[in-house]
Design brief:
four-stranded antiparallel sheet
Length: 120
């Protein structure tokens, strides 16, 4: 793993791809920890570092997309090529339904990857 890390060109070590998904306002946090803590999936999915920003980037053929962040009292047009950086663990966020095909790339940092690779 350490050999691969010397060529890794990004500070982010995890990527989620979300397609045509309307999401209610939520945080990507430990709210379901009790349900998942004994699962190996937990370490791979739910350990986003709260101090780090995540980057969401959109691509596709769609229109009329909006992202809301009610805890900050903000709403953004979530147009093609839009990039939004924030902590998905701290800030409540949601995406309204879109007309067309939308793909969002969600880049984040995961503690479990750092632990596995033995890097701080």
């Amino acid at each position: 793993m350490s050999e691969t890390l010397q060529y890794w060109a990004s500070v982010f070590n995890s990527l989620s791809v979300i397609c045509n998904q309307q999401t209610p306002n939520h945080r990507d946090n430990l709210s379901i920890y009790e349900e998942w803590r004994s699962s190996k999936v937990w370490n791979l999915v739910y350990d986003t570092i709260p101090e780090c920003f995540n980057i969401l980037t959109t691509v596709g053929n769609y229109s009329n997309a909006w992202m809301s962040m009610p805890s900050l009292q903000l709403e953004f047009r979530y147009d093609l090529g839009c990039m939004i950086g924030f902590s998905r663990r701290i800030v409540r966020h949601g995406v309204h339904a879109v007309e067309g095909d939308q793909i969002a790339w969600a880049w984040s940092m995961r503690d479990s990857v750092h632990i596995y690779a033995r890097v701080p």
